[in-house]
Amino acid sequence: MLSILAIVLITSIFHVNNVLVNTGNNLIHGEMTHPSTNASPSNTSISNNKIEVTPDPWWEWELLIQIPVIELVAGLFIVNVALDRYRSPKLSVDKNNSPKIVQMDLAVYKIDEKLIPYHLRQFTVPYNVNRILIRNVSGSAAKNSKGVLRDDDLEYRVCWSVPTERSLATINAHSMEYMDLSAGLIGTQNEHFKKYRDRLTELQNYVNESISEVTLRYILLQGVSEISHIFKTPEDIPVVIAPTENDWQVPPNKNHVLLWSLDSDAKLKEYTMIVTSENSHQLEERVIIHIPDDEGRVLQFSEPEKGSAFLPKTWPLFRHR
């Protein structure tokens, strides 16, 4: 980058030298017909109705100062923009190691009452999280990076896998972070719905038979009634979901639902995955969300053989936020 600045300065000096030499020659040796009849400047001599001009030293110094300053400012501006683009973090998707499949259990309900047996206090539904590996291949940290899953005009903010940086993450230089992009249901909707109904029945029977205190029994039965409305049919258990920007939500249908049922006509759909940060280029990848396969994957890249698409900053000063 310093070499660029040196070239600009040398070019400016060379240009000014040519301007001064050519201008001096024209002023000293050139002849001009004076437009007036008798008037003549103090630094001219009149001979045979022709004007011979002698150079003005102050004019030379003014020209010598003004032209280099203008070109130097322009050169520094170009160099600054080039350095800014060079130093900007460059994010990319590691498609060879994405998605990474990690199992998680999302609670449908949770009761904080020690008189209830532990296995009846909560009921969870298992999902396979599909995590995308985002690499920073530059020497600068990407600050306040966020992830978005876009569907036409709708944008779903997703989260990072780091518990302390769910919404915004800093990806250090030559480092990486995982982004939780989506998750697929493990097992079938009918299977989990049956377990859910059986668990509620067992819970209700336990409260009626084992909780003798009337007020507490009434409160617990009211809670069981509310819990029973979370899932009314098997289709209320979403098949593919995406997290919110703050974390995975409970129960599962509180997340961004990408696919409700295996019987849906839209068993796969294309989305745009976007990663931005306050000081880097915008990264975009087209991904296809589909029903879970045998390995737990619910997404694939539309163009797995090509590299990630870097979108340049708005030229020259503004960055995508």
The domain count comes to 2
Q: How many DSSP-defined strands?
A: 16
Query: Total helix count?
Result: 5
- Helix fraction bin: 25-40%
What is the radius of gyration computed over CA atoms, rounded to a whole number of angstroms?
36 Å
Strand fraction: 25-35%
Low-pLDDT windows of residues:
23-42, 79-84, 307-321
SS class: alpha+beta
Cα-to-Cα separation, first versus last residue: 27 Å
Largest sheet: 13 strands, antiparallel
Order of helices and strands: HEEEHEEHEEEEEHHEEEEEE
Backbone shape: elongated
The pLDDT mean sits at 80
Observed structural traits:
alpha+beta, disordered C terminus, three-stranded antiparallel β-sheet, 2 domains, 13-stranded antiparallel β-sheet, 321 residues, 16 strands
Structure report:
31% of the residues lie in helices and 31% in strands. The chain is an alpha+beta fold and 321 residues long. It folds into 2 domains: 2-87, no CATH class; 91-184 and 239-311. It starts with a helix and ends in a 10-residue tail after the last strand.
Task: Explain the layout of strands and helices.
Elements (H helix, E strand, L loop, with lengths): L1 H28 L1 E2 L11 E4 L2 E4 L3 H31 L3 E3 L6 E11 L7 H4 E15 L5 E10 L2 E7 L8 E3 L4 E10 L3 H22 L3 H14 L12 E3 L13 E4 L8 E9 L5 E9 L8 E3 L7 E3 L10
Antiparallel strand pairs: 1-3, 2-3, 4-6, 5-6, 6-10, 7-8, 7-9, 7-13, 8-10, 10-11, 11-12, 13-14, 14-15, 14-16
Helix pairs in contact: 1-2, 4-5
